[in-house]
Amino acid sequence: MITEERKLKTYRWYVWGALVIAYIIVFFHRLSIAVVREELVEAFDITSTTFANLGSAYFYPYMVMQIPSGILADSLGARKTVTLGTLVAAIGSILFGYAPTIAVAFLGRFLVGIGVSVVFIAILKVQSQWFFEREFATMSGLTAFMGNLGGIFAQTPLAVLVAYFTWRTTFIGIGVISLGIALLCYMVVRNSPADMGLPTIESLEGKKREIIKTPPLGEGLVKALLNKRTWPPFLAFVGFFGAFMTLTGTWGPSYLMEVYGFSRQEAPNYTTVAMLGLSLGCIIIGKISDAMKSRKMPMLGFGGIYVTTWGMLVFVGGGKPPVGMLYPLFFAMGVGCSTFVLGWACGKEVNHPSIAGISTSIVNIGGFLGAAVLPPILGRVFDRYADVLEATALFQKAFMYCFIFAAAGFLFIFFIKETHCKNIYEENKQK
């Protein structure tokens, strides 16, 4: 038994590691389009709104696929789901790189969004099978940290690759690498320890394995949607993630080049720092939450930092903070944005354990709804006022929407039910 336990505790990191490599690709595609804005505008002769919609073409299918992703993870299992999803993303990336027209570029971006949409929910499913419940927030934070490395790669390193190889070759190359990652996941990932004849997590904790009857999909979905406690973390995620993706994934490098005069290679350094802050924040907030046995208090603390940084970006210096402030400001913004990591746990812990996948998926939809809707709003501001306002005033006007989204997300944290890091569905039902 000791040998089997050791094998489980070792092999689970191989399973998690293979899935996280796929998740790095998820974040790369999520943020990559901001760095190649000038190249895309030149290649396809598109407006700011069309460019923003091209970025959103990733988020809309990602958002819609969150519930189906949970179904696939439960039915096909994480192994096959991530393998197939990564294959679709690889095809989309290659198609995007080859795209002769903007319509084909949209199709490639759409396929990437569909393909990568299944990865995160599958990782959560695997975590529930291979890791202890007390490790959930910490592992979610660690997963987000590793995924964000892909976001960091989509900043300065991507700018260097594009300058050296061109944007088309770079995206085709990422597609080819994704094919190898899909094969790796199929070879390494196992859905649960039972697939290898290993003991369950419950048995290692000395618990009797609960047989939880999973309700039909429609019934489970309705239960989660009708639970009023599902919505505050959803809405907080809309505001926080929407604003952050708008900056780092769509308009940030353009802001830094047009307002501060940075070069195409220099501007992504600042969004890289924001991604680094988010990566570290995801680990820190997960550990703090697990150690404090609290979800809400860390969210209020980190969320307050996040809203403050957006206020500084929009209001200090008339929308142009001193250059010396930018690195610490962007880093603090990333750290503060990590608040959303605890939203997944909040959504899971206020719903019945039998619908943990569905409830987590619903909360996850919120972030991608914000990331899909907000960038085109800014795009319309740029198209409408570009000939009227100078760059600083133009971006200040546009980023005001990001500040509003972030502030609204922070307010919804106050409505989140404190779970003390455990499932409280039955407790609340009895009250």
Terminal-residue CA separation: 42 Å
The CATH homology group name: MFS general substrate transporter like domains
Number of domains: 1
Q: What Rg do the Cα atoms give?
A: 21 Å
Short description:
This protein is mostly helical and 431 residues long. It is built from 20 helices and no strands. The relative contact order is 0.14.
List keywords for this structure.
OPA_Antiporter, 0% strand, 79% helix, membrane, 431 residues, mainly alpha, transport, transmembrane, single chain
Task: Tell me what you see in this structure.
The protein is mainly alpha-helical and 431 residues long. It has a single domain, classed as MFS general substrate transporter like domains (Growth Hormone, Chain: A), CATH 1.20.1250. 79% of the residues lie in helices and 0% in strands. The chain contains 20 helices and no strands. The protein has helices spanning 2-35, 37-44, 48-64, 66-75, 78-98, 102-116, 119-130, 136-153, 156-165, 167-188, 201-204, 217-226, 231-260, 268-292, 296-315, 323-337, 341-349, 356-385, 391-413, 425-430. The two termini are 42 Å apart. The model has no long low-confidence stretch (mean pLDDT 89).
